[in-house]
Specification:
four-stranded antiparallel sheet; ABC_transporter-like_ATP-bd; ATP binding; alpha/beta; Alpha-Beta Plaits; ATP-binding; ATP hydrolysis activity
Length: 298
């Protein structure tokens, strides 16, 4: 049984040709949770994943990983003890293309102290990844499936999936989500899902980190973040009066009825006020909040 790891970043900065990819990032990823790492393209998600896994040295600040059998907090860069307990699976692959799937599995088994061969075999069968085929001969979807197998079967105390399932079709992605939840339940560890498929993974996430232009927009438990938004439905005039002063995310109108999505905390007094005005209050999806908080437009 593995023990989940805690991750901290302190004033973490990474620059490419002088342009910040991460800008003074302070984070704490609690152990034993599934964290969503969300952001638009170019927000810094992949850079952060690479730094957490020790693939890149920060330009400023530091990453500290602790818990399990690591003892005192340690930085991952050029630290074999830490990196053997951190598994990063990227959409780009990071695997030698000329070897067979069987050889890639054998290499992972040799390098990963918590490797589960039975799980790997079961997942290869379920994703229908051929053992004797060279990786370079696999379709993009099968390459993504192989990455998912390597990540899950590693059972690393810190497992990071950086858009690693983008080549998979919807049924295969659903198979991945089901397999992740089942194995996470059996062997809890710290999981980071870096993705822009927010609507697909939102039900799995316990905490979210949202980045924009290399900076932290928010870090919050999912339920608390969802609580920051609400949809208000009712007579148009009553909706307009109630939502005055809120940040409006979206509006729709059908005849005399209006639906307005707002960002803001609705305390019990405001909820009672809305009910008295004949308004209906509903939740807002994580995808809608993400779009607003990052300034993106769908």
């Amino acid at each position: 049984m593995t023990t989940a790891l805690t991750v901290r970043t302190e004033n973490l900065s990474v620059r490419f040709a002088g342009v910040p990819a991460l800008d003074r990032l302070d984070l704490r990823l609690a152990p034993g949770k599934i964290h969503g790492l969300l952001g638009r393209n170019g927000s810094g998600k992949s850079t952060l994943a690479a730094v957490l896994a020790g693939f890149r040295r920060p330009d400023e600040g530091r990453v500290l990983i602790e818990g399990g059998d690591l003892g005192t907090p340690q930085e991952p860069y050029e630290n074999a003890v830490v990196t053997s307990r951190v598994c990063l699976i990227r959409e780009s692959g990071d695997r030698p293309e000329a070897v067979s799937v069987k050889q890639a599995i054998a290499l992972a088994a040799a390098l990963r102290p918590y490797w589960d061969a039975d799980l790997a075999g079961d997942l290869l069968d379920r994703f229908e990844v051929p053992l004797n085929k060279k990786i370079q001969k696999l379709s993009r979807g099968k390459k993504s499936a192989l990455g998912v197998v390597l990540g899950l079967a590693s059972r690393a105390p810190l497992t990071i999936f950086d858009e690693s399932y983008l080549g998979m079709d919807v049924p295969s992605r659903n198979l991945f989500y089901d397999a992740l939840l089942a194995d996470y339940t059996e062997v809890p560890r710290t999981v980071v899902l870096s993705t822009h498929l927010v609507s697909e993974v939102s039900a799995m996430l316990e905490e979210v980190v949202i980045l924009d232009n290399g900076r932290l927009v928010t870090q919050s438990p999912v339920d608390a973040l969802r609580g920051r938004g609400a949809s208000i439905v009712g007579p148009a005039a009553a909706v307009d009066k109630f939502t005055a002063g809120f940040t409006v995310l979206a509006e729709e109108r059908l005849g005399g009825t209006k639906s307005t999505t707002v960002l803001g905390d609705l305390d019990p007094a405001l909820l009672a006020q809305a009910t008295a005005a004949g308004l209906e209050i509903g939740p807002v999806g994580l995808q809608d909040l993400f779009v607003h908080l990052t300034g993106a437009r769908s």
